[in-house]
Amino acid sequence: MRITILTFLFISFFGISNASNAQELFGKWQLVYFDGIDQIRNSPQFREATATARTNMEYRIKNRLENTVYEFFGEDSLKYTDMVNQKLVLRKATFEVDESNTLIIKHADLVRKAQIVELTENKLILQPISQSGTLGRLIFEPYVEPEED
Questions:
Q1: For a surface tag, which of 60, 89, 119, 129 has the fewest beta carbons within 10 Å of its beta carbon?
Q2: Dist CA 137 CA 115 (whole Å)
Q3: Number of helices followed by number of strands (H, E) in the chain
Q4: What is the tens place of the pLDDT at every residue in 38-83?
């Protein structure tokens, strides 16, 4: 009897914890940094590129950062921007946070996973997970509407 109650409490605690983590995600988050930026800037291709090519790459990095926004809302809904053939596309998906604090995003047949490394009201750090392991880190901050001129 005690084991059953303890098991129930244990499962309930983790269920509440995961629901709480999902709720902490609610809102709009903008990508402000990803580890790939340093890899690009430190690569021989970048360093040896012409000034025009480097400027073009910097523009693409800035564009990607400014336009990568994730909006978590509802119980399990997500809107996010994605790059498809160098064009921004708004996608709608569902998400969940599992017991190991992994964010799972599902869009049609596509499933993306990322470990939630840190989640506060001012910062969200995700570490994408692929079949080959974890990939870099993505750092998000609360989205701030751009000022109009």
A1: 89
A2: 9
A3: 4, 9
A4: 888 899 999 999 999 999 999 988 988 889 999 999 889 999 988 7
Largest CA distance in the chain: 72
The tens digit of pLDDT for each residue in 85-102 reads 878 899 999 999 999 999
What is the value of pTM for the model shown?
0.77
Place of tokens 């053939």: 85
Quick check: 139 and 123 in contact, CB under 8 A? yes
User: In DSSP terms, which residues pair with 134 in a beta bridge?
Assistant: 129
Q: What angle is formed at CA 35 by the lines to CA 107 and CA 78, rounded to 5 degrees? A: 25
CB 141 within 8 A of CB 30: yes
Residue at token pair 């809302």 = 73
